[in-house]
């Protein structure tokens, strides 16, 4: 499949979440679409599992595909209905007519109103106000003082929320047509879309959270719809996090018009209902910036920690068994050990309550992933962190071993 990805230099400021529209069309961000390039390909894992099409159809290498012969994500034919079934307490039915019925509530708690409370919203904003890419570093301001002042309250709130708003490990067992390799390819593609539109790293982390949570409470999602779910997740995350999110037609363009605007809007609607409109999910990115505000590190160590955290998004197993706060702690330790041979400072032990012994399993898994990153077929994250604005940390040789292994 050919993917057209666009570049949108729209984010002029990353310190405010207020979404002020441009005063005129001339002020609106200009979109320049890069040339088409192949992003997704065949998976040997699919062939091993005997999931190739009965007629042995090949992936299309043409950028223009008619509706009658159009191929979708990973070579699966598109159908007129969604073939999405939701089990347990939440049920979604999508008919060919497009009508949908949602009942029940997957996330059952009595704090729904509290999550939508403006005060808590502002509290979350304090934690994400420092979540700027390293290239957008600015002089210290009052927001950093606020983070320091309210760091313990922010951390406590995020730790409570992460337990409610996290995906379920092993959810692929409920999706016979979806493999871990497909998830890796989808995340790799989403990283490229985020890069081409110059979106924030937090937008990527949120999108993967939405994707995994959706798949956690649904069953039998067709592989031809997996990219549609991922695109809808990124669309929602961009609306939540970005000042000027890309327009709907840009997301359609990013999929090379594999899906229509109507299909994307319908999937966005379904995803929001399945997630019960709970979009303020804590991410590894948020926890990591909070840790580094409490115990600052060098620019190289900071970017290396962000790189390790982003690599963890690729793999469902083993990283979904760890909470985002634990992955952040592991990424912090891996970065500081690689750069300065230090690990977990006493200040962060006191702040988080995590001991080094508790972090070791996650740190070990991150270290293995860091070592294997260079040889993986999917290189979008590694290519991103090869740039000078990220201190070229993906080119740093990982430590051969850890001191406690």
Automatic annotation (TrEMBL):
Biological process terms in GO annotation: cell division
Matches recorded under Pfam families: Cyclin_C, Cyclin_N
InterPro entries listed in its UniProt record: Cyclin (IPR039361), Cyclin-like_dom (IPR013763), Cyclin-like_sf (IPR036915), Cyclin_C-dom (IPR004367), Cyclin_N (IPR006671)
Coiled-coil regions listed: none
Domain annotation Cyclin C-terminal: ranges: 282-399
Keywords linked to the UniProt accession: Cell cycle, Cell division, Cyclin
Subunit comment: Interacts with the CDK1 protein kinase to form a serine/threonine kinase holoenzyme complex also known as maturation promoting factor (MPF). The cyclin subunit imparts substrate specificity to the complex.
Name the record gives this protein: G2/mitotic-specific cyclin-B2
Species for this entry: Sparus aurata (Gilthead sea bream)
């Amino acid at each position: 499949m050919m993917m057209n990805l666009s570049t949108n230099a729209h984010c002029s400021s990353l310190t405010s979440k207020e979404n002020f529209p441009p005063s005129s069309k001339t002020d609106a961000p200009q979109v320049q679409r890069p040339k088409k390039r192949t992003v997704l390909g065949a998976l040997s894992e699919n062939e091993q599992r005997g999931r190739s099409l009965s007629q042995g159809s090949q992936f299309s290498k043409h950028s223009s595909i008619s509706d009658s012969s159009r191929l979708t994500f990973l070579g699966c034919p598109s159908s007129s209905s969604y073939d999405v079934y939701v089990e347990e307490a939440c049920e979604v039915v999508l008919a060919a007519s497009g009508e949908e019925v949602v009942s029940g509530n997957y996330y059952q708690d009595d704090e729904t109103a509290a999550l939508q409370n403006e005060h808590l919203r502002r509290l979350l904003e304090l934690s994400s106000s420092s979540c700027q890419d390293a290239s957008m570093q600015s002089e210290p301001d009052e927001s950093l003082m606020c983070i320091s002042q309210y760091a313990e309250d922010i951390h406590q709130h995020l730790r409570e929320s992460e337990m409610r708003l996290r995906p379920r490990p092993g959810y692929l067992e409920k999706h016979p047509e979806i493999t871990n390799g497909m998830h890796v390819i989808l995340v790799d593609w989403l990283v490229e879309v985020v890069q081409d539109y110059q979106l924030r790293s937090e937008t990527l982390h949120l999108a993967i959270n939405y994707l995994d949570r959706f798949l956690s409470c649904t069953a039998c999602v067709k592989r031809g719809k997996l990219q549609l779910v991922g695109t809808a997740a990124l669309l929602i995350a961009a609306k939540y996090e970005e000042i000027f999110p890309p327009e709907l037609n840009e997301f359609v363009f990013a999929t090379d018009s594999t899906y229509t605007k109507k299909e994307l809007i319908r999937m966005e609607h379904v995803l929001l209902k399945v997630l019960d409109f709970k979009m303020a999910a804590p991410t590894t990115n948020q926890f990591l910036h909070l840790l580094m505000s409490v115990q600052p590190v060098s620019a190289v160590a900071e970017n290396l920690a962000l790189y390790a955290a982003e690599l963890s998004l690729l793999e469902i197993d083993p990283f979904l068994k760890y909470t985002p706060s634990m992955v952040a702690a592991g990424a912090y330790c891996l970065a500081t050990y690689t750069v300065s041979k230090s690990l977990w400072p006493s200040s962060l032990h006191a702040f988080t309550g995590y001991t080094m012994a508790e972090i070791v399993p996650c740190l070990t898994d991150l270290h293995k992933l860091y070592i294997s990153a260079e040889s993986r077929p999917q290189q979008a994250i590694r290519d991103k962190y090869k740039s000078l604005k990220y201190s070229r940390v993906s080119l740093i040789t990982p430590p051969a071993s850890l001191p406690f292994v």
